[in-house]
Amino acid sequence: MPPPDPDTGPDAEFVTFFAGGQSFSLDIAHVREIRRWSAVTPLPHVPKEVLGVMNLRGSVIPIYDLSARFGLGPTPENPRNVVVVATIGSQTLGLLVEAVSEILSVSRSSIQETPDLRSDATRAGITGIIGIIGAEEGMTRVIDLAAVIRCGTRPAA
Amino acid sequence: MSTNQSIRDTFFQECEDLLEALASGLALMECAEADHEVVNAVFRAVHSIKGGAGAFGLDALVTFAHRFETVLDAIRGGGLTPGDEVMHVLLRSADHLADQVEAARDGRGMDAALTAGFLHSLDACLGGPPAEEDEDFCFSFAAVPLDLFPDPPPPDAPGDPAGWLIRFRPHPELLAHGHEPLHLIAGLADFGAPAVTPDLSAQPAFDTCDPSLPWLGWTIRLPCAQPREAIESYFDFAQGLCDLTISPLDMQTPAEPPAPPAAALPPDPAPQDASAPEAPSRAPQPAAEEEDRTPRPTLRVDLERVDRLINAVGELIINQAMIEQHVLDLSLPGDSGIIAHTEDYRLLARDLQEAVMAIRAQPVRPLFQRMSRILREAVAATGKSARLICTGEATEVDKTVIERLADPLTHMIRNAVDHGIESPAARAASGKDPEGTIRLSAAHRSGSVVITLRDDGAGFDRIRIRDKAVAGGLIAADADLSESEIDNLLFLPGFSTAGKVSNLSGRGVGLDVVRNAVAALGGRITIASDPGQGSEFTISLPLTLAVMDGMVISVSGQTMVIPTAPVIETVRPAPSDLHAAGTAERLLSVRGRFLPVIDVAQSLGFPPRDARLPPLALLVETESQSQCALIVDAVHDQRQVVIKGLDANYGAVPGVSAATVLGNGQIALILDAEALAANRLAPPPPRIPSPTETGTCHAPA
Description:
Chain A has helices at about 65-70, 120-125, 145-150, and strands spanning about 10-20, 20-25, 30-35, 50-55, 60-65, 80-90, 90-95, 100-105, 110-115, 130-135, 140-145. By secondary structure, chain A is mainly beta. In chain B, a hairpin with a 2-residue loop joins strand 12 and strand 13. The longest helix of chain B has 29 residues, at about 1-30. Chain A: One of its GO terms (cellular component) is cytosol.
């Protein structure tokens, strides 16, 4: 179960998954379950990364396309796509990803800050990345769930 | 400690009920419909609050409640006729009492000067400050000296009046209320040295004796110089709970020989020692007053539990719909038992749902009572004169609706007093009753609750409203507006006609807030005004926030639900009925009328509908009572749907009010017909952020 305080604990566990061909990871404390992809009901007038809403045992939860959110284009339809159901505060939401790969156990200190990136487009794409963890086959991007569900186009209402 | 706390909580919960009883009783007294029983009920309410407050050592509350009660007692006894002036004091005092209860609950202090002011007006009702007894009315139970009967009374102390002969026989309720006769009697030692003789005459035989009931009476000879009122007020809390006679003690008449202290000391009121073998001479009889106080049996339940139940039933309804769908899909023969069973299941589930929803339904009475108070305060602040007449207080509405209506209604009442009702002089000049009348009514009307607030004030000053709107840049100076359009300007954010910022309204919080609050409850508000005659606000709200009647429709391949209420009829228009208007707009002619057409798929930003499908028009009536035609692909079904909010996990979506789960487990959006109809005129209204979604934002694409 989630460590008592994930920010100060010596070690942290992250669920890593692929979206848009890149590796992302999310603090396991946020992750509630992994579900198969099922059809969503689209919402009108929403940003492109909001695919719609899904029925999770009676709750209506929004589904975000993680790849589209990070500017990597919409996730192609594939029956193997999965939804990572995550909670933040009292909100429950789903992240559409291509595949979940592993659970990564690292020490907090090994999370590096995101390097300053040049291109504005990239920078816009990476708001929502808190840091980077070096992994065996490259690296994985630690996502900030609160920033992912906040769209950057307008100040908060 | 926790037990004490929970008893304390119970006391404050009871206080709420008592204050409500107090308010409704006073309201009856105000319209002179009160009989003796009502006055009694009012008295008892204050009395019970005082009693409870005494038990918790809430002295300020006890003091105030006592003086309040003294006035009520005078009315009860016929010594005081509740005229307008007195009623006014009583009503304001009831408000203050409610404040004091609240302050006591939160452990806050009250403004002593304010309380003193109220006490002064209460005393003034009785024609002067209260008698000396005030010092003694309070519980002194805690300070009972332990040496109960120090010495036999000195025989006839010279100069003293003889004293009092008290006959005291507790009723079972006395014990049930937690009073202890021993302490009561022992406390008399503060007045003088009592000589107590137990009266065992009612004591039944041991084998028939119910030890939990009081069987003893006492005769107390109390030599003291205090007036009778002091003794009466000492027994105040036992009033109605015992037989009590107080007569002057005649020292010349030798009464019963004073018993030796040991015998005089009253045994435990639950008499184990059944020495008097008489049959029970009087069955324990609840006092007549007590019976009326017994409310209908109710159960206090945590609201969260009720909501959990409601959620579970909501899921059951969805599950039932799914099963029904599956059974239908099996195409079983019509005489198959399972079909009859699923039908029964459906009916049972509906019954269960209705029963559960009824738990949340509550009468609007407490809300309306609060409004009377708001009115009194508003009247006091403006120096105007107005009365509130409430009707339909028994109308039941969902608890959440009641809670969330309090603020908008408060605002509207203040507005009505501040802006609507004219000054008494102005009213008299225009031939009206100097006292304004504000009518607040609630009624059920075809699946919704309609709350109307009507004042007989000056009505809207449309010229001024228009000027204000122009000055505020809300409309163009040359805009051509109808009367109702001008009235509706009042709902625009930042609009206020108040020339100066008054204490009461016009603090920059306008009717737009009222409208938003009503809209958030799925209701709508309309206004009408008759210059010189007053204005009327009508709030129409759904009966419940959890289910509604909806039509299942499809739009651009999506299954959706539209509330049935605003839909007047469905029309399948012939191509010749649709007429282009301007470049993008179309009009639909229905029986000679031309209605604006709104393509739902287009306004939702969905892919355009398949032009090969014949369009279906839903004629809906909108807030401004104008009609328009919503174009959809098909209507499939009409059913009750369980409303699932989008706010908790996402946020408001323009054009969509909520979602529901269909029989196949898929989510269908519930369309906001009002917003869709308004879409053609203005961009979607700003969303009202819900408390849960801090900092999130979902801008329309």
